[in-house]
């Protein structure tokens, strides 16, 4: 599947002689060397591709460069070096007027702090992007009302932002982005200002909308649990660089380094893993005799444990055609919860075993 969005060797350097600094980074200089010269390297050699309909999550600690990276994707920040391509069009080659047109019609952004106009009604806020496009009032109000309905805000159209809870205000921001029918949504820590329960509700809302709308989404977060719940793929950033890019299972079971491993040590693996992530794709001896206990590659780990507890033999994992694609012996269930014996090894690739159809969401 061809990529919808591509970032190619992106650099963003703030300070004196940024292009020269980017060249120094290419030649092996590090962030601290540049900082000593009064230059800050916010993003260093970032490359990734996002497929159509995919949620691509970028996560990292504060100062890792993730928000700067996001703002280069729609031209709010000009890259010091590198390219951003959307549907094959090089956005970094566009002029200011062309970029504004792209942002108005093709790429929408959902901000962390709602960014609603207090003097506009909920409906007017949701319709704002369409007003910028010059859409006639009747049409934009109809489209905005539909977006509000999708976001669970039907009946609140004539209310004012200060009459809404924080979660409801964030839904208005999401509705505003959806109303423009943009192909790409950029979400900059959009749920991080919300209380935990409301935040989870918004995650549920986004996943529900995604099942229907199948938008291409880049989502920024510093919360690994949120990243693993939402992301089809996850990029982990550190000091301006992407240190790992993979599925939730990749990040959890095969961390690229100690830094990534430190993020994952407190994650509840049972809420992330699926049968595809822990199954043995090369059954041996009695492991191939799985009786009638079966699962699918996307069976959640919790259900898999319950199934495995009821039978004395390994659980068979069947694909959509009923063919056995792997088995899950008890040692795999135990090993997957930690780093002890029986944990899946790097050679056990769930993507290879299931043709890429791996589900990682809780």
Automatic annotation (TrEMBL):
Q: Does the keyword Transmembrane helix apply?
A: no
A Pfam family that this protein carries is: ABC_tran
Q: List each copy of the ABC transporter domain by range.
A: 23-264
Could you state a single Gene Ontology molecular function term? Answer: ATP binding
Indicate whether Transport appears among the record's keywords: yes
Q: Which InterPro entries match?
A: AAA+_ATPase, ABC_osmolyte_uptake_ATP-bind, ABC_transporter-like_ATP-bd, ABC_transporter-like_CS, Gly-betaine_transp_ATP-bd, P-loop_NTPase
Q: What is this protein called?
A: Glycine betaine/L-proline ABC transporter ATP-binding protein
Q: Which Gene3D superfamilies match?
A: P-loop containing nucleotide triphosphate hydrolases
Keywords assigned by UniProt, alphabetized = ATP-binding, Nucleotide-binding, Transport
- Please report which protein family the annotation says this sequence is part of: Belongs to the ABC transporter superfamily.
**Could you say which residues form the signal peptide?**
none
Return the annotated region ranges for Disordered: 336-362
């Amino acid at each position: 599947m061809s990529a919808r969005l591509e970032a190619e060797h992106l650099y963003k350097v703030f300070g004196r002689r940024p292009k020269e600094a980017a060249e120094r980074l290419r030649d092996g200089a590090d962030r601290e060397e540049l900082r000593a010269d009064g230059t800050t390297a916010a993003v260093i050699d970032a490359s990734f591709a996002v497929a159509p309909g995919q949620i691509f999550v970028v996560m990292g600690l504060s100062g890792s460069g993730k928000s700067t990276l996001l703002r280069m994707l729609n031209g709010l920040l000009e890259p010091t070096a590198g390219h951003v391509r959307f549907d094959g069009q090089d956005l970094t080659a566009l002029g200011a007027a062309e970029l504004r047109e792209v942002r108005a019609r093709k790429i929408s952004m959902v901000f962390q702090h709602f960014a609603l106009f207090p003097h506009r009604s909920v409906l007017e806020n949701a319709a704002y992007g369409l007003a910028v496009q010059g859409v006639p009032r009747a049409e934009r109000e109809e489209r905005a009302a539909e977006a509000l309905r999708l976001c669970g805000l039907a009946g609140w159209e004539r209310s004012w932002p200060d009459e809404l809870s924080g979660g409801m205000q964030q839904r208005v921001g999401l509705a505003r982005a959806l109303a423009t029918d943009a192909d790409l949504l950029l979400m900059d820590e959009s749920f991080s200002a919300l209380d935990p329960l409301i935040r989870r509700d918004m995650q549920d809302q986004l996943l529900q909308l995604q099942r229907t709308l199948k938008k291409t989404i880049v989502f920024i977060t510093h919360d690994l649990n949120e990243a693993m719940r939402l992301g089809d793929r996850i990029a982990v950033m550190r000091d301006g660089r992407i240190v790992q890019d993979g599925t939730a299972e990749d990040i959890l079971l095969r961390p690229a380094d100690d830094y990534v491993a430190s993020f994952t040590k407190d994650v509840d693996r049972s809420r992330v893993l699926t049968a595809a992530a822990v199954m043995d794709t090369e059954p041996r001896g009695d492991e191939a005799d799985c009786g009638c206990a079966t699962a699918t590659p996307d069976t959640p780990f919790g259900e898999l444990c319950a199934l495995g507890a009821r039978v004395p033999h390994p659980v068979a994992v069947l694909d959509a055609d009923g063919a056995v694609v792997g088995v899950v012996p008890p040692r795999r269930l135990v090993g997957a919860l930690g780093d002890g014996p029986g944990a899946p090894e790097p050679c056990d690739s769930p993507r290879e075993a299931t043709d890429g159809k791996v589900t990682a969401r809780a």
